[in-house]
Amino acid sequence: MTLRRLFTLLLVALQLSACGQSAPEQKSLARPKGGAPAYGDALITGSIGEPNTLIPLLASDSASHEVAGLVYNGLVRYDKNLKLEGDLARSWEVSPDGLTITFHLRPGVKWHDGKEFTSRDVLYTYRVTVDPKTPTAYSEDFKQVKKAEALDTYTFQVSYDKPFAPALASWGIAILPAHLLEGKDITKSPLARSPIGTGPYTFKEWIPGQKLALEANPAYWEGRPYLDRFVYRIIPDNSTMYMELKAGGIDTMGLSPVQYQRQTNTPEFLARFNKYRYPASAYTYLGYNLRLPLFKDRRVRQAISHAINKEEIIQGVLLGMGQIAHGPYKPGTWAYKPQVADPEYNPAKAQQLLKEAGFVMGPDGILAKDGKPFSFTIMTNQGNDQRMKCAQIIQRRLKRVGIDVKIRVMEWASFLTNFIDKGKFEAVLLGWTIGQDPDLYDVWHSSKTEPKELNFIGFKNAEVDRLLIEGRGTFDQEQRKRCYWGIQDILAQEQPYTFLYVPDALPAVASRFQGIEPAPAGIMYNLIKWYVPEAEQQH
Amino acid sequence: MANYLIKRIAMLFPLLLGITLITFTVIHLAPGEPVEMQTAMSPKVSAASRARLREFYGLDKPLHVQYLRWLGHLAHLDFGRSFAPDNRPVTDKIVERIPITLSLNVIALILEFGLAIPIGILAAVRRDSLLDRGISVFVFVGFAVPTFWLALLCMYFFGVKFSWLPISGIHSLGYEKFSAAGRVWDLAKHLVLPISIATFGSLAGLSRYMRSTMLEVLSQDYITTARAKGLQERVVIFKHALKNALLPVITLLGFSLPGLIGGSVIFETIFAIPGMGQLFYQGVMARDYPLVMGILVIGACLTLVGNLLADLCYAVADPRIRHGRS
Amino acid sequence: MSEPGRGPFQEFWRRFTANRFAVAALCIIVALFVLSVCASFLTPYDPDAIDAWHVLLPPSAAHFFGTDELGRDVFTRVVYGARVSLKVGFVAVGIAVAIGTVVGLVSGYYGGWVDTVLMRLVDIMLCFPTFFLILAVIAMLEPSIWYIMVIIGLTGWMGVARLVRAEVLSLKSRDFVSAARVLGASDRRIIFRHILPNALSPVLVSATLGVAGAILTESALSFLGIGVQPPTPSWGNILTSGKDYIEFAWWLSLFPGLAILVTVLSYNLVGEGIRDALDPRKQQ
């Protein structure tokens, strides 16, 4: 999942596969119908956007990862309780100094084209990931590797120079078929449109703009999935998608808070669908471009945070179904520090700080410094209704203290390339997924501020740098915890982001699907065990 | 006739040139240069491929050279490669999407003419009556209601509430297994809503135009003469007036096309129809310049062809034009 | 042209008022103007006042049209939205009419190669699906209300140009223009004093319909997320924000939807009323 952590500043609201820590809530009126597990039927889901590429190494959008996640496997994965377990690796050993990991691969696993999966594939995946010619956002963790070698067909060994805490988890990266890619240009590979993996589902067809279909892999090493097909329909409009759900055109979607709380509590809906609710592993934030003189002043950032009422945002945007974010970790996890001293809602204090920073109120109700009005633009991505609402609430609050805010919505790809990567933005309203490993080197370290890197706001703090390196360089959880708690204290003081909220994931699934077991990992982790009793099969 | 045809086709070239020129200008309004955009997409693009891109667009050359170079590529129907991550040739992406958009619009166009003409005639014959006013309110309501709102309402009522029609897309799941008749029926059910809404929205212009040409014809002397001769009103209208009133309507055929194609952005987004409008919207939002330029040029050319066909029909119907207006 | 004792305007007005639909539509348009001008007197609320604890409330005595997804008063937003939507309509059409009139006058009056070039330009512009052009330009620049008005105007002048040109051609040969020329009037004087006033009526009709079209275009742009940007309310963006709740918070889409429908319909009916009233064939 480290790889998901990275570039997927996801459209979180649309994602099902979010993970949770506390016990999920389930709502349904459907009689527990029981019925024996049976093969057959299809799960149809909808997506606003079309996947870009089905080679996960090259993908940076959630749609691509969602589909590719069913086609490929990693060496390790997180189980339902968010503990690492073997996937393509049957087992592994970590040397006593923590510097070497030896993976014992599962024998007899076949690629969908019938070739056997071996250590050669793993070695290839490593090499192509660190190849400077490969346009991928996921190479950072693998650059720490000192040596990677295939000891024999089923044994793969990597060693690191110094202890690297996220090492094991990083091998959750999707393993690619060497026999189809080696010696070829991966960016031109046909696998991008018809992938061949080792996963529970095999690729069937992709009709651009309409749908993408996967079929159960009968030879899957964990056993054939019950559901014969997984269909991914492309429905570009949110309202249309919800109507499709109600009309039975799709079986599952992530509900919006309004849909969850106000539109779907009818007996009719609850008889046909099960609703789930659990904290998503993601947070939304307002980030400032620290290279701009305006936001260089810490008091200004603190003032903005003081002026924003996070309670109001959670109420207005999530109808209360979420938690306030105080830092980059999920409440309840060991890396999360409760009660950090971040700015509370206090407009008077905001005004005080702005005054100290040299701003005076102009006649038009807008603050100004040296004759320049305090005005900036918040950019956010298109298609995320929650962020749009959030931006409007912030706009309103900041206007109260005399800050003029404009909002601009951009399409994702062009947002990244034209604005984020070039540093051409003032403030952004975005989200990060929260990985299981607390290492946040990529997002906060001062060396990661180049174009295309993730510390795009240009945050540079020597103490944070030190703590990040210390934190990823040890396996001792207590020591790591001290590091990350320290980082949270500094972030609370510095406010390079105003951390806003951790939303709840709110998926709904048609009630004919059985075998769903909500767990800290969410609901999608055991998709291959979902089934529809024979009598209720529809497709 | 051949002379007329040749003259008419020769006139297409300056228009085509103008279309490309305007498209080129529109795209260059946007800040930033295309290569910068594409290389930014993949930071690790090699210097060689960057050079290839610059070569393709001739970006180091002055604007007029860039334009001519682009025109050269167009002559070979080469619109370049999409900036989207799939990096496919723009021509391929557009070609696979044209049939659905075009057929939807042609069906809507046929329905539009089939309905608007009788409605217009009726309104003209019963001029200023309550029926005439009623018709005008009806067709203007179709024009005035925001299409996406009407579409969502129809989807909700016909799709969710009564479950009569499918909501979006163009095929049901399992379409591959249907019989030929089943497939047609399935497709038809999916297209009922988008086509009827598109048709409803476009009735106003044509039916009002039909009404006024019909009125004009009815006020001509020969109609008065026919009436004076004691011919039945029905004969007067259908035999004498209609033929002449219909002629100018033909030319509208071609001009209806751009409006319909423009509207397809909304329809295709809301009904999840994988056509050119949807592709264009995605391209515009992602700043996929080659794709946007490609669709603008092709969209305009479709209209050009539509106009040509309409003019030819007109020429066939009206001999005065064929032989040069004199 | 008209009966003795009556000016041409009275004659026009008599014929216009004979069409009751058009008169009703005109009343609606006037009422809307009054409404949008007096917006701040009509409602105690601030159109941008967010109330996160009272989102999507159904219509009540406190909120005639209910509240929206951020707890703002929908009635207030619809009333203020009238201002924005009408402004978009009028400015866009103003631009279109200005360009179209100039092009049509120049083209028709001078004829020759000027005419040929300008009319080819009109033909070319008419080939583009207008909405594609608007979409491309606005999405690539940025969706501000000014860009929206200007671009709609820049892509909507061709019809006016053709109308004006046709009118000029027919007027040019008429006696009073030839007389003016013989008397040594300058081109500019002939165009502005003699031809333009006579060409105004078809332009008026076309402008009325243009306002309706521009309001619809703005709402379509809003649906695609590039219309008038928040917090400024326009009918288009209120309607768009209501589209997700069409069955349950119907008030959020119904009122702005009706506002657009009724307004556009009224402009069309008035436009048609004017056309009919000016139609020489209808003179008894």
Automatic annotation (TrEMBL), chain A:
GO-annotated biological processes: peptide transport
Gene Ontology CC terms: ATP-binding cassette (ABC) transporter complex; outer membrane-bounded periplasmic space
Signal sequence interval, chain numbering: 1-23
Keywords (A to Z) from UniProt: Signal, Transport
Domain Solute-binding protein family, chain residue ranges per copy: 83-446
Domain of life assignment: Bacteria
One of the record's GO molecular function terms: peptide transmembrane transporter activity
Family as reported in the entry's similarity comment: Belongs to the bacterial solute-binding protein 5 family.
Protein name, entry field: Peptide-binding protein
TrEMBL record, chain B:
Chloroplast in keyword set: no
Gene Ontology terms: cellular component: plasma membrane
InterPro entries for the chain: BPD_transp_1_N, MetI-like, MetI-like_sf
ABC transmembrane type-1 domain sequence ranges: 98-310
Topology term for the membrane: Multi-pass membrane protein
Subcellular location(s) per record: Cell membrane
Transmembrane portions of the chain: 12-31, 102-125, 137-158, 187-206, 245-271, 291-317
CDD domains linked to this entry: TM_PBP2 (cd06261)
Primary location group: membrane
UniProt key word Membrane: yes
Record keywords: Cell membrane, Membrane, Transmembrane, Transmembrane helix, Transport
Gene Ontology BP term (one): transmembrane transport
Family: Belongs to the binding-protein-dependent transport system permease family.
UniProt-recorded name of the protein: Peptide ABC transporter permease
Organism: Geomonas limicola
Lineage of producing organism: Bacteria, Pseudomonadati, Thermodesulfobacteriota, Desulfuromonadia, Geobacterales
UniProtKB/TrEMBL annotation, chain C:
Listed transmembrane segments: 21-42, 88-110, 117-139, 145-164, 203-228, 248-270
Keywords annotated in UniProt: Cell membrane, Membrane, Transmembrane, Transmembrane helix, Transport
Subcellular location: Cell membrane
GO biological-process terms attached to the record: transmembrane transport
InterPro entries: BP-dependent_transpt_permease (IPR050366), MetI-like (IPR000515), MetI-like_sf (IPR035906), Oligopeptide_permease_AppC (IPR053523), OppC_N (IPR025966)
Listed Pfam families: BPD_transp_1, OppC_N
Gene3D superfamilies: MetI-like
Main location: membrane
Top-rank taxon: Bacteria
Boundaries of every ABC transmembrane type-1 domain copy: 82-271
Membrane topology type: Multi-pass membrane protein
GO CC terms: plasma membrane
NCBIfam families: Opp4C (NF045476)
Family: Belongs to the binding-protein-dependent transport system permease family.
Name listed for the protein in its UniProt record: Peptide ABC transporter permease
Organism of provenance: Geomonas limicola
